[in-house]
Amino acid sequence: MSNPIERLLDELMDPQTPPKRRADIGMALAVLGDDRAGVGVDSAGLPRIDWCFVPGKSVTLLNNQSHPLGDFRVESFYIAKYPVTVAQFQSFMNADDGYQDDRWWQGLAFGKQIWPDNQASANLPATQIPWVNAIAFCHWLAAKTVSQPALLPADILTPNTIRLPTEAEWWLAATNGDPARLYPWGQHWDAGYANAKESKSDGPIAVGMYPFAGAFCGALDMVGNTWEWCLNEFAQPTRIGLEGSERRALRGGSYLDSPSAVSCISRVAQFPLSRNPVSSFRLVCAGQSDLTQVKKLQTDL
Known about the structure:
The chain is α+β, with helices and mostly antiparallel strands. The chain has one domain: Alpha-Beta Complex (paralog of FGE (formylglycine-generating enzyme)). Helices cover 23% and strands 14% of the residues. The chain contains 6 helices and 10 strands, in the order H-H-E-E-E-E-H-H-E-H-E-E-E-E-E-H. The chain has helices at 4-12, 19-32, 86-94, 131-144, 167-175, 288-300; strands at residues 51-54, 57-62, 68-74, 77-80, 162-163, 227-233, 248-251, 267-270, 279-281, 284-285. The chain has a 4-stranded antiparallel β-sheet with strand order 1-4-10-5. A hairpin with a 5-residue loop joins strand 2 and strand 3. Helix 1 (4-12) packs antiparallel against helix 2 (19-32). The longest helix has 14 residues, at 19-32. The N and C termini lie far apart (58 Å). The relative contact order is 0.19. The model is unreliable at 288-301 (pLDDT under 50).
């Protein structure tokens, strides 16, 4: 007979499982001990990321009206299966060399911001995190890869390669580069495939509660539940430098949004200091040569 966690995970695989039940399952998993890969931390207390490979491709980035924002050549990279969870961000807050270490904010226009850790479940996406704190988390975790290469995908040999995705990378991971794919699972909205306004949730639910609605690369929750920070400026997607104070882009929609706003083309802007209960962030891992190429190609646009 399967154990309680296996039974709960099997229940999630049924598209007919109602949204309220999915939220309850997420809370139950947190109580029982959510040991799904990519949700918690490893034995050293460091975030355990489940990486999904995204093949490189030339893409046309679209805005909310499906109008082109520009053409981008995106090199192959890995993206986290889930947004960073409360447990994973808490590991940064608790580490002796984590949040308290000013190094991770060097080069940013703004310094560290307070994180009001008031989320009950460790497997929820970590929200109310300003863009600057998300960048600092990436710097900290990337530095850890020098001595902890197991944090990286198996075929990434260069450490210090973890960061936020550019919008072009996020969009490629969510759509596989198909402009007709408005949702990770296809062209049309399917009720019960994401935590959106129609789910009538009181807030974000645990990551991965819609396991059948993933993107082609395997990433989950790329639309709905929470908006996700991207690396670049909103007004100029080619600008990915960290030093600016301009508003940054977020993608994907949240539990407060209607299906038309919970889509791969949905984008909003927030200032780097903005702290919002409906926004989180997801990691990518790309070789430094890839990032250099992205910068070069974006400069040429």
